[in-house]
Amino acid sequence: QVQLEVSGGGLVQAGGSLRLSCTASATFSELVALGWYRQAPGKQRELVATISRGGQTIYADSVKGRFTLSRGDTGNTVYLQMSSLKPEDTSVYYCNARSQFNIDYWGQGTQVTVSS
Fold first, then answer.
1. Which of these, 65, 63, 70, 69, lies nearest to 86 by C-alpha position?
2. Which residues pair with 30 in a beta bridge?
3. What DSSP assignment string belongs to 15-65?
4. How many other CB atoms are found less than 10 A from the CB of residue 49?
5. In sequence order, which residues have a C-beta less than 8 Å from that of residue 30 and are 6 or more positions away?
6. What is the rounded CA–CA span in Å between residue 63 and residue 72?
7. Mean pLDDT of 25-48
8. Do β-strands 10-13 and 110-115 pair in parallel, antiparallel, or remain unpaired?
9. Residues 79-111: tens digit of each pLDDT
10. Taking all residues of the chain, what is their mean pLDDT, rounded to a whole number?
């Protein structure tokens, strides 16, 4: 069982920045990927950004150039730096960890609200 501790989120004006962090209870060598998804009301959960154990980072097209996903020194923490935020980025953001057994674990969602 992998537990995910998340922090960050909140209310910001359009054009502003926020940072989310997520720390997994497992070591990064036990995970194949760590990242963030988001889900807006009435919509499906969608990938925001994820980083693989090998260091490959994937971003949703809608956030490329605005969001940056990075990994902490210990490897089991990821940071999502969100800049130039738009009202359409408003959503509940969920940290995701995929284990080496291809099991997905989810952190508690954190609300990000961008006002226009």
1. 63
2. none
3. T--EEEEEEESS-GGGEEEEEEEEE-TTS--EEEEEEETTS-EEE-TTTTT
4. 22
5. 2, 99, 100
6. 21
7. 93
8. parallel
9. 999 999 999 999 999 999 999 999 999 999 999
10. 95
